[in-house]
Amino acid sequence: MKKICAALILSIFISVTYAQSNFYKLGVGLGAGGTYSFTDVKQGNFGLAGYATAEYYFTPFITGSLELQMGTVKGGNIKTDPHNREFTNGYKAITLGGKARLGQLTDFYYNDFLNYIKGFYIGTGAGVIVNKMKSIVRVKPDGSGYVFPGSDNSVNAVVPINVGIDFYFPDQWGDIRYVVNVNYQTNFTFGEGLDGYNDPKTKFKNVSPDLYTYFSVGVRYNFGFVGLTNKPIR
Questions:
Q1: Angle formed at CA 130 by CA 128 and CA 131, multiple of 5 degrees
Q2: Is residue 108 one of the residues assigned to a domain?
Q3: Does some domain include residue 167?
Q4: Within a domain: residue 17?
Q5: I need a surface site. Which of 143, 147, 213, 229 has the fewest CB within 10 A?
Q6: What torsion do the CA atoms of 218, 184, 222, 130 make, to the nearest 10 degrees?
Q7: DSSP string spanning 189-232?
Q8: CATH number of the domain that residue 97 is part of
Q9: In angstroms, how far apart are the furthest CA atoms of the chain?
Q10: 20-43: per-residue pLDDT in tens?
Q11: Is 214 exposed, middle or buried (0-12, 13-18, 19+ CB in 10 A)?
Q12: pLDDT tens, residue by residue, 188-232
């Protein structure tokens, strides 16, 4: 009887231990990619941008983050745009946000497909974007002398919407230390600073928030103090 009780206790202990995993609570990352603009200027264009991020893991699959982003947003073409408008915005943005990953909701340990996509996530946040025009057509080049109203320097609120996936790689002890990230971000800006133009609605169509998209690939390094989860994430 004592042997049976001891074996039962041991099996319970092994099961509990097996079902629990450690995870690092902090992460830092870098990445880069391309932007594309959707503004009052009819024609969008591609730019380049990079980012740095710091993340806090509430669970292995739910995080809060601080992101710094810097690059260019471009649009228009002085020759082909109907109003000869063109701009290049050398922007900087800082946002606070959060992400929730599929692994928080699924039992992926015994399913290969769910295990592969456990890092798929959606997220959002809020912050500010600092706009600085590196170049802009301010006077319409048709001989009319019309000056496009707007500001070369401005600060607007921004709301990012993120969709992406994390791919996890363990360290020599089996803990998730390294992450490769692929992300698609849509950034809604509130104000007229992204393209530098603020023409009256009576002259130009201006009914939607300016936005830009950002496709990026990055890497992240997890470290710091550890948390405990009841999911076997290794």
A1: 135
A2: yes
A3: yes
A4: no
A5: 143
A6: 80
A7: EESS-SSS----TTTS---S--EEEEEEEEEEEEEEEEEEESS-
A8: 2.40.160.20
A9: 101
A10: 788 999 999 999 999 999 998 989
A11: buried
A12: 999 999 999 998 877 776 667 899 999 999 999 999 999 888 877
- Which residue carries 């950034």 as its tokens? 187
**In the numeric block, which tokens belong to residue 78?**
């002085």
180/8 Cα distance (integer angstroms): 41
Classify the C-alpha dihedral 51-57-59-60 as positive or negative: positive
Check if the beta carbon of residue 113 is closer than 8 Å to that of residue 95: no
Asked if pLDDT for residue 14 goes beyond 60, the answer is no
Parallel/antiparallel/unpaired status of strands 46-59 and 211-229: unpaired
Structural domain count, the chain: 1
Cβ-contact 146, 120 below 8 angstroms:
no
